[in-house]
Amino acid sequence: MKTPDCTIIGGGIAGLSTAIALQQKGFSVALFESAPEIRAVGAGISLAPNAVKALRALGLEAEVTAKGKVLESMDILSQDGASINIVDTQLLTEKYHAPHLAIHRADLHQILLSKVLGDVVRTGKRAVSAQQNTDGVEVTFHDGSTHQARALIVADGIHSPIRKQTVPGSEPRYAGYTCWRAVINYPGDLSGAATETWGPKGRFGIVPLPNHQVYWFACINAPANDSRCKNFTVDDLFVQFRDYHEPVSDILKHTRNEDLLWNDIADLKPIPQYAFGRLVFIGDAGHATTPNLGQGACQALEDALVLSSVLEKNRDVADGFRIFDVLRKKRTHYVVNRSWMLGKVAQVEQPLAAGLRNMLLRLAPTGAAEKQMAYLYDVVF
Ligand SMILES: Cc1cc2nc3c(=O)[nH]c(=O)nc-3n(C[C@H](O)[C@H](O)[C@H](O)COP(=O)(O)OP(=O)(O)OC[C@H]3O[C@@H](n4cnc5c(N)ncnc54)[C@H](O)[C@@H]3O)c2cc1C
């Protein structure tokens, strides 16, 4: 194979969108993915206006919108269904010139994969280490094979072995809560509102998708890798959330055990550097965040555009990566830190403290939240 301009490790949202962005700027790419095929987990994902603008810049907004659902509001509710905070996403759409979308991850992945040109994706190749040399970076795979890269873009997610090798101690950090997710067929009418219910038994999120599908998630506090949680069934979740307002129970009634996806929630404590000579970390490999702000994939899409743009302007790869590092660090660290804090607030389970939190949030001035949204969504690519 001809040595390509850029080698990407990982075919998730970060890796695929970066491949597309680089090809659009005239770079050749090679992408190595560990899984036997590129495929997303069976869950939904929300894409905030900054992500939709990134997709617009990639020429993908119309296709993603056609497969997704435009969210009309995002409401935080208490256990009895009373409103704690409502974000009118239609107003945000006007203000930040892009909607808030929800989409099945499989659809987003399919669209991204279909836009990577040529036979450049190699599956079944798990990168285990990388070594810089005078020609660039040599990657070693689990099967003992190697690949010489002129520039190496590492997008292999939170458990990235190359990041662990390059940044010692950069292990995932458990957030203290665990999460079940599912996409189900649901006949009930949810309109376009996404909701997140904060109560003493945990958090329950409901996100409408097109075609009468619903993406839901449930987070409860638990020890890491808890054997009790590992064996949780829909019935256990039903018991856990039985005191919550409808349609929580009804949605669980429409869920089968085989629909459940279970993960402990973890992030990466901000690392001081993303660029190391001709090697750079992007997406979750560099700045994995807890999902509380719904920004992990959004930031991965931003990475793709910023990286392709700096490489177009700086044909010296190391210079381009260094500039990327400067442009992306503050913003992605902000997301990781804010999301971590928000998770701590949202997961309060002591009933008195949870009640006080809800009351304070209802009374809180909207200025801080608006400032945060402006920072996240008011971007131009
Ligand atoms: C419960 C939950 C809900 C979330 N909700 C949202 C949301 O609503 N909105 C949002 O913006 N974000 C959300 N996120 C975050 C989002 O899922 C991630 O930030 C995003 O998927 C990161 O994409 P990535 O490509 O960087 O990493 P990944 O999705 O982890 O992709 C990495 C890819 O690399 C491959 N790989 C792994 N190791 C290797 C290796 N050694 N060699 C080669 N390939 C390898 C993997 O198979 C995978 O294909 C959520 C996360 C969670 C856990």
Provide an overview of this structure.
The chain is α/β, with parallel strands linked by helices. The protein has one domain: 3-Layer(bba) Sandwich (FAD/NAD(P)-binding domain). The chain contains 14 helices and 19 strands. α1 (13-24) packs parallel to α5 (105-114), α1 packs parallel to α11 (296-313) and α11 runs antiparallel to α12 (317-346). Residues 9-15, 32-35, 45-46, 126-127, 155-157, 161, 179, 181, 217, 263, 283-285, 291, 294-298, 300 line the site of flavin-adenine dinucleotide (FAD).
What is the annotated CATH architecture?
Answer: 3-Layer(bba) Sandwich
Percentage of helical residues? Answer: 25-40%
Give the integer mean of the pLDDT values. 95
Radius of gyration: 21 Å
The helix-and-strand class reads alpha/beta
Q: Describe the global form.
A: globular
Number of domains: 1
Looking across the biggest beta sheet, what order are the strands in?
Answer: 6-5-14-15-16-13-17
**CATH third-level topology:** FAD/NAD(P)-binding domain
Total beta strands: 19
- The end-to-end distance, rounded to whole angstroms, is 33 Å
Please tally the helical runs, counting DSSP H or I stretches of 4 or more residues: 14
The fraction of residues in strands falls at 25-35%
| Bound chemical compounds | flavin-adenine dinucleotide
CATH class: Alpha Beta
CATH superfamily: FAD/NAD(P)-binding domain
| Biggest sheet layout | 7 strands, mixed
Low-pLDDT regions: none
